[in-house]
Amino acid sequence: MKVAVDAMGGDHAPGEIIQGAVEAARDFGIEVILVGAEPAVQAELKRLGKIPPGVHVQPASEVISTHEEPAMAFRRKKDSSIAVAYRLVRDGQADAVLSAGSTGALLVAGKVLLRAIPGVQRPALVAPLPTRAGKPVLLLDVGANVDSRPEHLVQWAVMASVYAETVWRRNRPSVGLVNIGTEDEKGNALTRATLPLLRQVPGLNFTGYVEPRDVPLGAVDVAVADGFVGNVMLKTFEGVASALFGMVREALKSGPVASLGGLLAKGALRQMAQRVDYAEVGAAPLLGLRHPAFKSHGSSKARAIYSGLRVVREFVGNQTMSQLHTQIARLGPAAGYGEDIVNNE
Amino acid sequence: MKVAVDAMGGDHAPGEIIQGAVEAARDFGIEVILVGAEPAVQAELKRLGKIPPGVHVQPASEVISTHEEPAMAFRRKKDSSIAVAYRLVRDGQADAVLSAGSTGALLVAGKVLLRAIPGVQRPALVAPLPTRAGKPVLLLDVGANVDSRPEHLVQWAVMASVYAETVWRRNRPSVGLVNIGTEDEKGNALTRATLPLLRQVPGLNFTGYVEPRDVPLGAVDVAVADGFVGNVMLKTFEGVASALFGMVREALKSGPVASLGGLLAKGALRQMAQRVDYAEVGAAPLLGLRHPAFKSHGSSKARAIYSGLRVVREFVGNQTMSQLHTQIARLGPAAGYGEDIVNNE
């Protein structure tokens, strides 16, 4: 199994990205192709010392930054690390691609170079969120698509269910539709139109509406929402967590007694914080593309890339992609899911 | 100043509600009219002992529970505590109304009995959220309206700005439009259509898009969103806070050393938790009605009702209502804000 890794994407590229990829190649029995500016990549590899076999380098002379308009940057920079890495996958020279770079550029690259699974109208961006219950929840779409239609949400629900089953080994993963109430008549036009469609999908363990309050508590395995709403949830999640952790830290420095308490509780609190850390999750798929493409958090360090490549290995090794094709085909054009917007864009 | 208090609304009614109202009447120089089942109310008053002057009782024989369909319950139960309390305000026998009861029923009562300020198309539900910065942010709409139109958001922004200025005494309160990015072209159809309208409102300190991540950090005084999105933010906020507090509590019991640390840090952590507590905020207005109407959290105890009545006093005492009328009139029918949907429903 070969994974193309964008060595230039993310706040800590290329050093931390390369370190995580090299460690993953050593531990997971996979090959990695580091895509990026060759001198920089070689310098990092030299710094790391002993490089395991199965670590390759593919030169790419340009980098797309997160500050650039994604579509324009992608079109202009033909030799960007993202474009080169995605082409390796498209051309069969790699089985999957991982990047911590510009989300917008990854989506464009995915749609243009990898294209959507036949029948999939809109690929979605997924975020695995930590929960109180311990096991993460798969939230989607978290920003790839706004003003979505009911059929989009149905396809995302089906694909995320396949992902939770094959990659996370969840048994009959439960799927909830994010809504501001649990009664049928609650919600907006989109949720009310999507509810009956999701109920009709054979084999899907759809459990109805789920309130945003219950998602961080672990009420469902998969939470489906329009990309605007999913992104708002994800960012509210991040904002509240950051504000609260900051306040706890402050409280534990607010006086000599509290400080001593904080010192004693430090280990336990750090362990707790780790449970809700991005680095543990590692990477999230761009669901709906014809080839496995993964996104790591922009602030990923070596540990996150390492964890991310373990997720990629699970995805590629467990036939997730063929299951996605099968289940999307099963939804069928009869139900009106055949139109292929993305590939005609 | 007289405030009608729904003695029967909320999880801890009537005991805690009445206690909070009686304490407020004693401390804030206001009169309260306790609306509810007379025997129950009188029994609670007797239990409390010495009752200050200015505490009145208005009988209401029925109660609307949160499990009932709001519109139907409101229509069927003509003598519900909510309906009786709202009628007192409509008929000029009270200056404001406060309830911790069914949000849906309060919205129906507000629209039917109090009606909207001339020009206001959709009254909105507000939630004051605690922030890292210490001072709360006003988030609206948090669920009264879904599938909103740009004009609705503009009216909410203007009204919330008046509220933050007159009730919270913020100087030129900053107003942000909740969005999943800060560049003009980011967002969905609604945010992109609302952005230029908000920029044109004279006198409004509109600071552009605000990301949900920055709201709990205190980036703006007012955050405006469609009611579906606002409710998702509010409930994600609650869910994440509850999950994290639970995890911190667990971590501080996870072993003898951590437990000792937790014991020492207890006071500081409790003080911190208080800063993000509903009871401190007390009550939120239903913005856009012709009379002051407030909602307290369903789980309110005496302290929350007490704090809530202090907010009501600020609202009534600072001419907030006349400012709302003035600013909405200033937006003007020329801008297309004249249509009065609610009052024609």
Describe it:
The structure is a homodimer of 345-residue chains. Chain A has helices spanning 15-28, 38-48, 70-76, 81-90, 103-114, 150-166, 189-199, 227-251, 256-275, 278-281, 302-317, 320-331, 341-344, and strands at residues 2-6, 31-36, 55-59, 96-99, 124-129, 137-140, 174-178, 205-210, 222-224, 284-287, 293-295. With 345 residues, chain A is of the alpha/beta class. In chain A, helix 3 crosses helix 5 (103-114). The longest helix of chain A has 25 residues, at 227-251. Chain A is globular and about 60 Å long. Mean pLDDT of chain A is 91; it is low at 334-345. Chains A and B meet through helix 8 and helix 9 of A and helix 8 and helix 9 of B.
Summarize the structure.
By secondary structure, chain A is of the alpha/beta class. Chain A has helices at 15-28, 38-48, 70-76, 81-90, 103-114, 150-166, 189-199, 227-251, 256-275, 278-281, 302-317, 320-331, 341-344, and strands at 2-6, 31-36, 55-59, 96-99, 124-129, 137-140, 174-178, 205-210, 222-224, 284-287, 293-295.
Rg of chain A, rounded, reads 21 Å
* Topology pattern of chain A, helix = H, strand = E: EHEHEHHEHEEHEHEEHHHEEHHH
Query: Which percent bin holds the helix content of chain A?
Result: 40-55%
Instruction: State the distance separating the first and last CA atoms of chain A.
Output: 31 Å
Write down the overall geometry of chain A.
globular
How many strands, what sense, and barrel or not for the largest sheet of chain A? 11 strands, mixed
Strand tally of chain A: 11
Q: What order do the strands of the largest sheet of chain A run in, or round the barrel if closed?
A: 3-2-1-4-11-10-5-6-9-7-8
Number of helical segments with 4 or more residues of chain A:
13
Instruction: Provide the β-strand percentage band of chain A.
Output: 5-15%
Low-confidence residue ranges of chain A: 334-345
Overall mean pLDDT of chain A stands at 91
- Structural category of chain A is alpha/beta
Oligomer: homodimer
Largest interface: A-B, 59 and 59 residues
